[in-house]
Amino acid sequence: MKVYKLSEITNKRILGRNVQDAGKNDKPLALFWAASALEVNVKAKEVWAEFSSLYDDSEPWVSVYINGSPVSRFMVAKDKPVWVCLARGLNPQKENLITIYKDTQPMSGEAHHSLFIHSLGLDEEGLFCPLKERKLKLEVIGDSITSGEGLFGGPDEMEWITQWFAGSRAYGAQLAREMDADLCNISQCGWGLCWGWDGNHNSRIPPHYEKVCSVMWGDYQEKLGTHQDYDFKGGSDIVVVNLGTNDNGAFFQPAWKDPESGKEYKLTVDEKQLASKEDGQKIVDGAKDFLKVIRKNNPKAKIIWVWGMIKLVAVPPYIVQGIEEYKKESGDSQVYSLELDSMEDVEKTAEDKGSRGHPGPKVHALAAKKIASFIKNL
Questions:
Q1: Apex 198 CA angle, 196 and 203, nearest 5
Q2: In terms of pTM, does the model score above 0.70?
């Protein structure tokens, strides 16, 4: 086997948010967000990769795809780098696209959760071939649904563990493959637009949007570059926002108490289970403010705000109001809203369902197709 450091491989593609010098020096490549990936196009009989990870409790999982189809999945060993065979016995005369996905989201509750790819290995005659440029750049912003939580394990599995995450199988990754797009994902389980599932005002995606992966904290993560400004490189062609599910759920949770100020926040709904006007206005303002930041960094993108893979009651009208007010005030006509099919309506059998009470494979597949159709019709 011939071993290549990533800096030695010209023909490679890094998908997802990363530091500006990623893959250009002798440092191993860190993959941060769910569905972030390394891609190479090879003519080789064998393909190997050298991985390592560090974590406190939540190990990272990896999925390997060949030519757009899944072939293997495994957790990455802790501490010491380990070589893993990704493919063996391939036709060396045929080009094969190898995609190595991080299936696991960044685990913001841990100081050390990280995944690294150190080197790739091919048989002695193997070659790295040029990669075909994709048609679009796609960004997807969301929560646990976007992270692919629940896409492994049966409907009775309720442990909160990384084994049940599969960013490579989530609607965003499916949409990217359907649209021939490079994918950039930013998603965090339990987080929202204005607050998290429990009303925690700190569990918000927008404040982290312009950083590489600042949901991770501490000296170790900062040395990896998580708090660097993210280079949008002109922005994406399509931005899909799927935030609101946790904001909605928080209305039906006890009051959240700010640990620093001691102040309690209790969200309220009216007799129709719709957010009260005061709390609903926070959703309106949050949506408008976030759209301004997204547009600043993605000047040419069509922005599509989606919801509904889990049925929502309290917040959708306020999300739509925020979108419409933003469009009117800014003159930006390239922002849209789209309700998706819900797990409550779609899932009929155990095979349809996901683990941890999350949408299963059928719901994700329908979401990807519906968004793809919507984009093609724009």
A1: 25
A2: yes
